[in-house]
Design brief:
Helix content is about 20%, strand content about 30%. With about 290 residues, it is α/β, with parallel strands linked by helices. The chain has one domain (about 5-275). Strand 13 and strand 14 (about 240-245) form a beta hairpin. Helix 1 runs parallel beside helix 5. The longest helix is centred in the N-terminal third of the chain and has 13 residues, at about 15-25. The two termini are about 20 Å apart. The relative contact order is 0.27.
């Protein structure tokens, strides 16, 4: 039935799709990316006409699926800190706040740096605290050097380099046609390719990213020459995530995008969580291999 079988399938806009692919590959997952810099549209491109796919996405967006990403949005910067020793030992479960989760969905839906994964579990994240002392989950993607202002969004080229360095297969000629469901659960997707439909099974889920390219340079207040830590951030129990820069201090009012500097701020907990990455990255055709434990 399936033409290909992978652990994670990433489709849609390049930023979210590649970010998900990189952290999945770092967890030794087999990844396939169907994305292109020329991809335009909202969360589900105009070519996706399957009613079940649209209904599934709408059910996860809490009635907010009509919200479109804003291409002029800056790359988000989040001030975070490690958990204290007492916080790490604490067994207290934070209260569930539905309003905060809904606000997070809105933030991701309206951001060209957002993405949605069909499973809540799957990414091994590090819990941190924000400047407002709220918990947040983060997964490091890598360190990016901020180039001089101007030109295309530097995050795009950097993510392509990160994906290439891990041997991730990126299909620029493929796009999402529809999701495939088994017993009401997303099992994979049908991709439209130059050679016809390709049915891909995704054992650990599908990542959907908006096809909106940011029109800003993506550097915000950071200076040329800065090294910033790029991570995937999400709220606990949310399928939605966003690509962000992590910092331990807020940018000062006098920061200039034309000055040199360094903002290496990655915490020990987040750095340790990234160790142990496998160097072999590939996807495999279905040929009798058993699926991995889920």
């Amino acid at each position: 039935m399936w033409d290909l079988e992978v652990d994670v399938l990433s489709v849609g806009g390049v930023i979210g799709a590649l970010a998900s692919a990189v952290i999945s590959a770092d967890a030794d997952a087999e990844v396939l990316v169907a994305s292109s810099p020329a991809h335009h549209g909202g969360w589900l491109a105009d070519e996706v006409v399957d009613t079940d796919t649209h209904a599934y996405f709408a059910s996860l967006c809490e009635g907010l699926a009509s919200i479109d990403p804003l291409p002029e949005a800056e790359l988000p910067v989040r001030v975070v800190r490690d958990l204290s020793a007492d916080e790490q030992r604490s067994r207290t479960v934070p209260p569930f706040r539905g309003g905060r989760l809904r606000n997070w969905v809105v933030q991701c839906l309206t951001s060209p740096y957002g993405l949605m994964h069909t499973r809540v579990a799957g990414w091994a994240t590090t819990t941190m605290r924000t400047a407002d002392d709220e918990p947040v989950e983060a997964k490091l993607i890598g360190t990016m050097a901020v180039p001089p202002a101007g030109g295309t969004n530097p995050l795009v080229g950097w993510l392509f380099d990160e994906a290439h360095g891990r041997g991730i297969d990126v299909r620029a000629d493929a796009r999402l046609q529809r999701l495939v469901f088994e017993d009401g659960v997303v099992a994979g997707a049908v991709l439209a390719t130059s050679t016809g439909p390709c049915l891909v099974r995704a054992r650990h889920g599908v990542t959907l990213a908006p096809g909106v390219m940011p029109i800003t340079d993506g550097c915000g207040d950071f200076r040329a020459g800065d090294e910033v830590e790029v991570a995937l951030v999400r709220q606990t129990a949310s399928r939605f995530a966003r690509v962000e820069v992590l910092s331990n201090t807020p940018p000062g009012p006098s920061r200039s995008a034309t000055c040199a500097g360094t903002t290496r701020v990655l915490t020990h907990q987040l750095r340790d969580a990234r160790r142990g990455r496998s160097e072999t990255r590939r996807y495999r055709e279905v040929n009798g291999h058993p699926p991995r434990n889920q």
